[in-house]
Design a protein that fits this description.
By secondary structure, this protein is mainly beta. Helix content is 6%, strand content 66%. It has one domain: Maltoporin, Chain A, CATH 2.40.170.20.
Length: 715
């Protein structure tokens, strides 16, 4: 099998290379605002002037080379240094990290919608490393800026499916995705509508475990997983996105957005469980049936304002979210024990954010500051009796600032300093707690040469616990295990020191240390009380505490275009994490490597993309370690466009070859329980899969008078 795959790949690349000289003799074509039209232009090369870095912000003018061979915005972004496109998930990573937010003209439009848009309506990309203020907590902010003089419409219809032609899951569909979107821009108006439906099968992952309860002198292990666990299309998600933007005049704009998200997640497990009672020397074999169904409805609406007056620029938005979640859980062990958890969750959430900025001395000094207010109220009721089981929430007030400036007249030295202070009131079932947290950040950037720079960063960030993590309410998930929150849980603060070296417009290296003295961690502890059986006894309580986390890390990234139509990328990250809580501690490691090669055939409008990913990780908390040993993925993607790029057909094949065993393992070590869970990794479950994607686009537009969509001095 391996020889066949290697032969196919070599043949494909050889055929592509034979067409290169003929392509170079052809006149080159680039798309205008309308997909249906082509205009002959001279070749444009990627030069340093298309990329500008100042401090923590990089601005990239989208060139013909960046667009070449990219069927959507996600793939186009992958042609920019520091950004990596994943063809399997149609997502983008930033220097090996996926915690990013993507905006359009500084507004949130929905990640999947933006990734599937055609890139022709965008003229530049702004990338901010570890943004401050409103979007603090992300590794990067990516802002796509539309063409100011564009008027027209754009839409697409997309269908995609992934299936398994061979192996243990032969003939099974892993997921279906159908989506459609329409965008219309005219005069001062911009309208967006997007609908997505996804069905996936998560339960093809086979899972088994071994557990020991020391105080009960009891061991358990799964003997056999029923084939009915591999249910098809048991998870369905619907999402609707609507938004309207209106330009009041050249300095002021209003926007409205609405998102509805419905998710149905149905999981059923049937297996044989062996119980060994060490104190009495008996062995029991039990049938276990577990049903976990969740139905979630989420409504979100928001208003946005952007404006300027004189030297000042302003922004404000208010958001309201209503969420209704209905878990229906049944756990049956043998014929004598049944546990039911059926309830309704309701959450009301409001968020107000405002900010202002001003620059002085020809934009050499800039001040940004803002105020945020967040309120959440969460209620859980029994589904049948409507009795209130839990009520908790929080109120958070946050003030922040960031001062940025050039330290010399030529802009070779830049620095910034920022900070924020938060007052938080948390309550759960009548128990309240007031918290005050603050953070600071600092950055220094130095331009070494025209193609080289270095930057030093210190960041102090805050991560607040979720509603479930601070809830005083808890419940039994089986006969010996209880799960609940901690109303006295503190926000997690994280310190990060980082040095970044960027060279020759194609290479960067980073090194840093992340330290969190009170990161939020799940632990298992021994408790005594009333069991679901009605008798008193010892049981395992899973809850949340603040613990210590430390991780030195280093990463490198390389992007290079050669022979005009080839783009090579490589990203690597290594880290040594450790975690500690009381007498518990664990040490781990993280090694991730990704490399890809993209080729575009201009004559036939065909793009070939080949990538390899490898993970060798041991991720840790104070009581757990999760091992993903040498898990890798090799895949190739071929995209072909037809009818002047209106129709796109994509084929993705994931190689069945593997380096590791494809098994992930999570081990818990505590006085209350010692357990190991084994399961097939995501990579293992998708090896050998085939994916087909069909996209039809319609677009039309023209140049009109220019009107202002952004603040010219915005950083």
């Amino acid at each position: 099998m391996g020889k066949i795959i290697r032969f196919v790949l070599v043949t494909l690349l050889t055929a592509m290379s034979l067409t290169t000289r003929a392509q170079e003799m052809d006149s080159l074509k680039v798309q205008s605002d309308s997909v249906a039209r082509n205009v002959s232009l001279k070749e444009v090369s990627v030069v340093a002037s298309s990329i500008r870095t100042e401090g923590d912000k990089t601005t990239v003018r989208i060139t013909k080379e960046m667009r070449r061979g990219a069927r959507n915005t996600a793939q186009m972004l992958g042609n920019i240094r520091g950004l990596t496109w994943n063809a399997v998930s149609n997502s983008v990573e930033y220097n090996g990290r996926g915690n990013i937010i993507v905006l359009v003209d500084s507004l949130e439009k929905g990640y999947s919608y933006v990734m599937d848009l055609h890139h022709l309506r965008f003229e530049k990309v702004e990338i901010i490393d570890r943004p401050k203020g409103k979007y603090e907590g992300y590794d990067a902010l990516i802002n796509l800026v539309t063409k100011k003089n564009y008027e027209g419409y754009e839409g697409y219809l997309r269908t995609s499916t992934r299936l398994m032609p061979a192996g243990p899951n032969a003939g099974k569909f892993l997921w279906f995705v159908n989506s459609g979107a329409f965008t219309y821009t005219r005069n001062k108006w911009n309208f967006v509508a997007n609908v997505t439906r996804m069905s996936d099968n998560k339960n093809v992952l086979q899972e088994w475990y071994e557990r020991t309860y020391p105080m009960q002198e009891l061991t358990e292990r799964v003997l056999h997983n029923d084939e009915t666990n591999e249910k098809l299309l048991d998870n369905v998600d619907y999402q609707v996105n609507l938004s309207v933007d209106y330009q009041l005049n050249k300095n002021h704009s209003l926007s409205w957005a609405y998102v509805y998200d419905y998710n149905r997640d149905e999981n059923q497990l049937n297996y044989l469980l062996e119980q060994r009672h060490m104190n009495i020397g008996t062995i029991d074999t039990l049938d276990v049936h577990s049903i976990n169904n969740t139905y979630n409805h989420n409504h979100s609406t928001a208003l946005f304002y952007r404006g300027r007056s004189g030297a000042w620029s302003y922004e404000a938005d208010i958001n309201y979210v209503y969420n209704r979640n209905t878990p229906d859980n049944t756990f049956q062990r043998g014929s004598t024990f049944t546990l039911l958890n059926h309830y309704n969750d309701h959450m009301h959430y409001t968020r107000f954010r405002s900010g202002a900025r001003r620059s002085w001395y020809d934009n050499r000094l800039q001040l940004q500051f803002g105020y945020h207010n967040t309120w959440k109220d969460y209620e859980r009721k029994d589904f049948d009796s409507q009795q209130q089981l839990n009520n908790n929430g929080f109120l958070r007030n946050n003030g922040w600032f960031n001062l940025w400036g050039r330290l010399d007249s030529i802009g070779h030295n830049m620095a910034s300093v920022g900070g924020r202070i938060e007052q938080v009131h948390v309550w759960s079932n009548g128990i309240g707690d007031n918290q005050l947290v603050w953070s600071i950040s600092a950055m220094y950037w130095h331009k070494l040469t025209e193609k080289n720079w270095i930057r030093f960063n210190y960041d102090y960030s805050i991560n607040h616990p979720t509603q479930n993590q601070t809830s005083a309410y808890g419940f039994f998930t089986d006969s010996l295990t209880w799960s609940g929150g901690n109303p006295f849980l503190r926000p997690s603060v994280s310190h990060q020191w980082k040095v970044w070296f960027d060279a020759w417009w194609c290479f960067n290296a980073q090194a840093g240390v992340t330290y969190a003295p009170n990161t939020i961690t799940a632990i298992s502890e021994l408790r005594h009380g009333s069991l679901p059986s009605g008798v008193d006894g010892d049981y395992v309580a899973s809850t949340y505490v603040n613990s210590r986390y430390l991780s030195p890390w280093v990463s490198v990234s390389f992007t290079k275009r050669f022979a005009k139509d080839f783009v090579y990328k490589a990203d690597a990250l290594a880290a040594m994490p450790s975690a500690k809580y009381g007498d518990f501690s664990q040490h781990g490691h993280e090694l991730r490597f990704k490399t890809s090669l993209q080729y575009y055939n201009r004559k036939y409008h065909l793009t070939a993309f080949m990538a390899y990913e490898m993970n060798h990780n041991k991720m840790v908390t104070p009581q757990t370690y999760s091992i993903n040993d040498k898990d890798d993925l090799l895949y190739i993607s071929i995209d072909k466009t037809f009818f002047h790029d209106r129709l796109s057909l994509s084929f993705l094949a994931i190689s069945p070859l593997k380096w590791g065993d494809g098994i992930s393992k999570t081990t818990v070590v505590s006085p209350a329980i010692q357990s190991t869970n084994y399961f097939n990794s995501w990579e293992s479950n998708n090896r050998g899969a085939l994916q087909f994607t069909l996209v039809y686009r319609f677009m039309g537009g023209k140049s009109v008078r220019e009107y202002k969509r952004e603040m010219s001095d915005e950083r």
